[in-house]
């Protein structure tokens, strides 16, 4: 089985490490290519866990940008392998919209796609439907478990509930590892705490944030996850024609910081926002509450919402979450009295790459 890896950042590099660490005699995977945004190494030789990154820098070719290459020679080579009867999997470890737009082309050519990249599944419904149609026409599959809850089995659980005929009435919880880490540390039952900007900076250092942290703080990351999950529930499929943009979303990015181009500049400017967040924290504590950023998909009322809420200091969201924990509760007919709950780290390279690798192992 041939694996073309696009993106070798935090998640992509960890994914390659984990793939190369699988037991050798039973490892059915042949890494066909590894790409960053500007460099590609086709048919890499002698890849060794922990040492491949150095070899990539010296051996990868930077003749073309990766999107162009995927649309031309690299894409054609992958399609030739499919025609020769091989299984080929494109692993997109980027957050690129442009790469996401290529999924229908690859799927219809029989190339399977797995990815933690939320873009394709949470944008326009048209692209999502093209992906479904392309997969059905060729039999190629897409798996995207790490797009929601990183390695936590959220999407596979929802698919199992729906395909076995359960009725999902509501999904609710904390869907962002970054927001979870921020508020678990910033808003507690204690009067004094760290500044908002300092916990955001730490979340970024820990690898929880999107490449641009504003994509977490503006709620878009949660809105995208809610869109992805909603699209597995047949009655909600038409509800978000423009994808995550149609979700009722509370942004925590003040207007003055909205158009900052890079993540570094955004982090530098963030302390100007500390006083406003401090006021929210104090207000909540005066009511005996903490702040948590949550998402809800309510099937009955067809409401999909990402918002900052206050919870009693004894509520499960205040007491049982730590680190980058996500908690996702499925309310269904079969889990009527007590919801099915999934909880654990919802961001970070190791757990995200594990979700991507477990998707890849579905092909064995
Ligand atoms: N971090 C986490 O906890 C989680 C992340 N995810 C998702 O995983 C994905 C990767 O995240 P992360 O590893 O943190 O991001 P990084 O920014 O660390 O890495 C992104 C990688 O993608 C490459 N890249 C970007 N654009 C292109 C392009 N057009 N063509 C080819 N390569 C490209 C970059 O290349 P270059 O090296 O040249 O810059 C880089 O290697 C994102 O979609 C994110 O949403 C999902 C769940 C959790
Ligand atoms: N930035 C995201 C990463 C996982 O999807 C998050 O914080 O949850
Ligand atoms: Na997941």
TrEMBL record:
Function summary: Catalyzes the conversion of L-aspartate-beta-semialdehyde (L-Asa) to L-homoserine (L-Hse), the third step in the biosynthesis of amino acids that derive from aspartate (the aspartate family of amino acids), including methioinine and threonine, the latter of which is a precursor to isoleucine; production of homoserine leads to a branch-point in the pathway as it can either be O-phosphorylated for processing to threonine, or O-acylated for processing to methionine.
Occurrences of domain Homoserine dehydrogenase catalytic (ranges): 153-361
Domain Aspartate/homoserine dehydrogenase NAD-binding: residue ranges: 7-143
A Pfam family assignment: Homoserine_dh
Residues at the catalytic site: 225
Name used for this protein in its record: Homoserine dehydrogenase
Organism: Schizopora paradoxa
Residues at which NADPH binds: 94, 118
Highest taxon above the source species: Eukaryota
Top enzyme category: oxidoreductase
Protein residues bound to L-homoserine: 210
Pathway in which this enzyme or protein is active: Amino-acid biosynthesis; L-threonine biosynthesis; L-threonine from L-aspartate: step 3/5; Amino-acid biosynthesis; L-methionine biosynthesis via de novo pathway; L-homoserine from L-aspartate: step 3/3
């Amino acid at each position: 089985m041939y694996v073309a890896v696009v993106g070798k950042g935090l998640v992509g590099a960890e994914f390659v490490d984990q793939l190369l660490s699988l037991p050798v005699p039973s490892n059915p995977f042949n890494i066909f290519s590894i790409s960053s945004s500007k460099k590609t190494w086709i048919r890499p030789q002698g890849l060794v866990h922990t040492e491949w990154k150095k070899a990539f820098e010296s051996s990868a070719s930077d003749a073309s940008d990766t999107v162009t290459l995927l649309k031309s020679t690299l894409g054609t080579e992958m399609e030739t392998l499919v025609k020769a009867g091989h299984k080929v999997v494109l692993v997109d470890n980027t957050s690129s919209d442009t790469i996401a737009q290529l999924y229908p082309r690859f799927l219809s050519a029989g190339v399977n796609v797995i990815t933690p990249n939320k873009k394709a599944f949470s944008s326009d419904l048209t692209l999502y439907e093209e992906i479904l149609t392309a997969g059905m026409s060729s039999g190629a599959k897409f798996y995207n478990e790490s797009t929601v809850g990183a390695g936590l089995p959220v999407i596979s659980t929802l698919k199992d509930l729906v395909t076995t005929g359960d009725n999902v009435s509501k999904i609710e919880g904390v869907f962002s590892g970054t927001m979870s880490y921020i508020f678990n540390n910033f808003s507690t039952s204690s009067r004094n705490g760290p500044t908002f900007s300092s916990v955001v900076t730490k979340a970024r250092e820990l690898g929880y944030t999107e490449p641009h942290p504003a994509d977490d703080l503006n709620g878009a990351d949660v809105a995208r996850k809610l869109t992805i999950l909603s699209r597995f529930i047949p009655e909600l499929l038409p509800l978000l024609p423009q994808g995550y943009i149609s979700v009722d979303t509370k942004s925590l990015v003040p207007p003055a910081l909205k158009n900052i181009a890079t993540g570094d500049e955004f982090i530098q400017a963030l302390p100007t926002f500390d006083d406003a967040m401090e006021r929210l924290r104090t207000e909540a504590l005066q009511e005996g509450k903490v702040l948590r950023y949550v998402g809800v998909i309510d099937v009955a009322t067809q409401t999909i919402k990402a918002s900052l809420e206050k919870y009693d200091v004894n509520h499960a969201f205040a007491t049982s979450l730590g680190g980058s924990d996500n908690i996702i509760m499925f309310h269904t007919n079969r889990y009527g009295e007590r919801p099915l709950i999934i909880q654990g780290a919802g961001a970070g390279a190791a757990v995200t790459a594990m979700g991507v690798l477990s998707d890849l192992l579905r092909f064995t």
